[in-house]
Amino acid sequence: MRTANQTAIVLAALFHRSGxxxxxxxxxxxxFVSYRERLRxxxxxxxxDALADYGLYMVELDVGGYALVSSKSLEGxxxxxxxxxxxxxxxxxxxxxxxxYTELQDEISDSTGAPDFNE
Length: 119
Description:
Strand order of the largest sheet: 1-3-2
Mean pLDDT: 92
């Protein structure tokens, strides 16, 4: 078995060789490069943390597997500010007032398919 840091080095090299700013890897690939039969949550977290040292983010995907994304590819991303996108609730945010979390969650669920925790 490879350590989380060793696995991160292999994944960072794989990512670098791909020449892409983002890639998907399967659980099978992660098991293969880590030389493991099972992926424990703590190991995946440790690999994710180790990848940050190489400027990479690893995110588990809903469809299975993981995305590797270069942090440099996000440096040019548009800024999302509360002032611009949360104008309707800016006074509540500013004053620390209670928010309608159900309404916000419905908005999120509609666009992302996220689970509704209010049920």
